[in-house]
Amino acid sequence: MGLGSGSGSAETSSLMSEFLRKTGGSAVVDGGLSTELERHGADLNDPLWSAKCLFTSPHLIREVHLDYLEAGADIIISASYQATIQGFQAKGFSREEGETLLRRSVEIASEARDNYYERCVECSSNGTGDGRILKHRPILVAASVGSYGAYLADGSEYSGNYGDAITLETLKDFHRRRVQVLAESGADLIAFETVPNKLEAQAFADILEEEDIKIPAWFSFNSKDGVNVVSGDSILECASIAESCKKVVAVGINCTPPRFIHGLILSIKKVSTKPIVIYPNSGESYDAEQKEWVQHTGVSDEDFVSYVDRWCEAGASLVGGCCRTTPQTIKAIYRTLSTRSAAALFQ
Ligand SMILES: [Zn+2]
Prior knowledge:
By secondary structure, the protein is an alpha/beta fold.
């Protein structure tokens, strides 16, 4: 991107504001990856979860990214949430192979973006042929970084309880190399997702500064009560850590039931002026012991989307979906945001 390389922190800090200026003030983030991979036939029964597909079926990941772009997503998130060098090593890969797989996650997303632009050129109407949204527009690739709990694959990213043995330094050592590799992978930004406590938020902020990471990031926390993040740490404290890091260009909430989002946006706004990113789950409850989503406990796509106007009015500018949301959810968000920006033009 940008004019020339090495232009440093000015360009890093303006990436999201520039992007949002081009998109008219709001943008669509993609939706759940793993449910869609399974729908395409992938077997995710593995501690690496969706990251397993990086070496078993990368073409399926690319298809899902394309599905989301054709549903209107302006930002796609790489399949590296549960991809860690340590996790790949536990599978018998070397350190170098693990790093290659991390880079591969971003390359696959970038390939999907290239394929999408080709399809836009082929579709001369520049419109929405057969329900697909084929419209040339700025698209960002975000490299996903899941929490330490996601690597443990024991559901602890939903408790935020890592035990006393885990310190700030442990977390920094765990994440450092992975963040460095993803930052050099061609991604536009890093999405630190499902951050369950303030200790890990601080670890990410420290890594961004200490390692002089050249691309910006967003911090996205998760909550199960609409007041605090899942560990019980205050959302105000967590968002403040994001606010004070220059390299963080958006802060928000993901993998949290839709009904909690509005209040959390208002809380974040008390301590942050950065763009707010929101990508809730479908509202279904997750059974950490069974490692599966409990069917029929969530909200429909229509209900999900009925929240979107309220979230935008409260201050969200990036909206998408997390677990159990689909391209249908994202298409509905796209329509809502398009209607809003068209209405704003006529005001
Ligand atoms: Zn999720």
